[in-house]
Design a protein that fits this description.
Length: 283
């Protein structure tokens, strides 16, 4: 881990020499009409990393926020993702250009393949395109999302280029220990989507609530702190300004080893999965 940024968000080192802030603002299901204001709220609160995707239909609204914000472009870390219908070499480049136009950016910090969509068997082609776009200087870092070990092995073997990040569903009910260990062993940073388990049952879990009471923190802060201490990058989503602020305020307290172990014991294995299974997901 590198030194904290001026907003005290630690930077995580990536394999290619770049860095990603450990907490970012996730834009999944952030509606078009509210997205620009919410991103500006997040940036005002101190977020420097924003995560969107072509399929979230809010890249243009993020672009508007970036134009309005007084924070210099170089101080922000912007991620977007390639959708599954654009995995061929040519389509990937067209989709990337469209995203960049909507975002109003010349250079992207991180571009991810959103899902492997293995039934199409085109994700290696998409990966080769990302490598080219990076070599042309249009993207600083390239990675993947929702990739399982065989998908990761496949792109690395075929191209000799490793993704720097794998963004996956990960929360205390679905800890993905084998995949996380494999990524760590291969120096691939794990970024957790739905780090709060979408905010439902998990935030009401008696174990989480009791730790929250002990520490005088909210259940969401306890869960995010658990991720931080495991070295995960997190991108909590909230459409509520108070929660947006709360979710970044996770660097001035710590969970004890016992508290970490209690949360570790909440893992439900594969039955804890909320989203689609990348092996079978067919969008
Ligand atoms: P809201 O947008 O009303 O704040 P995840 O990032 O794991 O997918 O979780 C997102 C869900 O969790 C959203 O429904 C969001 O609701 C809720 N959420 C986000 N932050 C908090 C928080 N600090 N406390 C409670 N719920 C939260």
């Amino acid at each position: 881990m590198d030194t904290p940024t001026k907003t005290n968000i630690p930077l995580i080192n990536l394999l290619d020499g770049n860095h990603i802030p450990q907490v970012g603002y996730g834009m999944w299901q952030v509606s078009e009409d509210k997205a620009t204001d919410l991103v500006l709220t997040a940036i005002d609160a101190g977020y420097t990393s924003i995560d969107t995707a072509m399929i979230y239909y809010n890249e243009a609204e993020l672009g508007k926020a970036l134009k309005k914000s007084s924070v210099p472009r170089d101080d922000l870390f912007i991620t977007t993702k390639l959708w599954n219908d654009s995995h061929s070499v040519d389509k990937t480049k067209v989709a990337f250009d469209e995203s960049m136009k909507l975002l109003g950016l010349d250079t992207l910090d991180l571009y991810l393949i959103h899902w492997p969509a293995p039934e199409q068997n085109l994700y290696v082609d998409a990966w080769s395109s990302l490598i080219e776009l990076q070599s042309e200087g249009k993207i600083k870092s390239i990675g993947v999302s929702n990739f399982h070990i065989p998908h990761l092995e496949n792109i690395i073997t075929k191209t000799n280029v490793s993704p720097v990040i794998n963004q996956i569903e990960l929360h205390p009910y679905f800890q993905q220990r084998e995949l996380k260990r494999w990524c760590e062993d291969n120096s691939i940073v794990v970024e957790a989507w739905s780090p709060l388990g979408r905010g439902g049952e998990l935030l009401d879990d008696p174990v989480i609530k009791s730790i929250a009471q002990e520490l005088k923190r909210s259940p969401a802060q306890v869960v995010l702190r658990w991720h931080i201490q495991h070295g995960n990058v997190v991108i909590p989503k909230s459409a509520n300004p108070a929660r947006i602020k709360e979710n970044i305020d996770v660097f001035s307290f710590q969970l004890s080893p016992q508290q970490m172990m209690s949360i570790n014991s909440l893992d439900r294995g594969s039955s804890g999965r909320i989203g689609p299974n990348p092996d079978t997901a067919n969008f």
